[in-house]
């Protein structure tokens, strides 16, 4: 499981391939250097050079672990009710500690990877595997005390400058229900775009984002979503949330489940937009996603597959995942959606039995997930 060496100087030197390196095996037996990670995206792959983005940002994370303390009693109405029911004895510090000893729970561990300008990384895994937790950590939104490992942005730790260049789209949209789509975009442009830009330019940018995301048809519809205010569909709301982050033209865009609850066409349209932002605009994009269709899967440059226990199973090029799993004994027909195979594996449902489940065979560490 040891990831290959990461360089933190922000230069395009080298990057890890599969983090799921079974004991005693070579994760890259062919010796081939990872095409997406060894060099900036080429024109041959349809990518424009990362120079389109004035502030290209290389995101690297190494052995990231996130732990929380669980089982700690906190003073709240519940504790107070129990306390008074027990004659005031249950709420004492001594009794609380005895009843609920705090323990540490590891949410994610051993997460390593790198995403460069022009690339889109998708984090896949079962529900509760820690995708949101890792994404939140990459966005600098976790308390440091609970987080260990190394996360760098162009070789530097998280800072105010990185924060200003980072867009974060949460799983659940947070929008004002009584504003229309165009008002939402317009006010965000006023608040978040540089003062140096004139009102006309800000309005033009807001309209460009609405066009890009196919929101012009609903530009004058209220966002809605609260009782009594009918509004946008789920897909439209999600596109507005993405638009608010696109407006500020982030170098690093992190999106939590941007396609959940959407039909496959809308989902493909959104991921296509994100892909253009990455490949065409030199942005660094990370998304979490539950069960991408085959069409969506092939839009990703890299994939990080998490196990239900919050450990990495695969990290590498999306296009290489099937051959990697075939090489460790989990072959599947070429016609299969790679995401389906990967999610089955992450959920402990092998499609084929590993041929040599011995500790010395590459398939061994994967077979552990199936026990
Ligand atoms: N602060 C916390 N305290 C206790 N448990 C937590 C905390 N934060 C996350 N967890 C647990 O960690 C696990 C991972 O949560 P997370 O939201 O990252 O999963 P996920 O992969 O994003 O799931 P989903 O696909 O359903 O969104 C869950 O079991 C969650 O309950
Ligand atoms: Mg989540």
TrEMBL record:
Q: What is its main location?
A: membrane
Q: Where is the ABC transporter domain?
A: 92-334
Name any one GO molecular function. ABC-type transporter activity
Record SMART domains: AAA
Membrane topology (UniProt): Multi-pass membrane protein
What protein family does this chain belong to? Belongs to the ABC transporter superfamily. ABCG family. Eye pigment precursor importer (TC 3.A.1.204) subfamily.
Protein name, entry field: ABC transporter domain-containing protein
Source organism per entry reads: Triticum turgidum subsp. durum (Durum wheat)
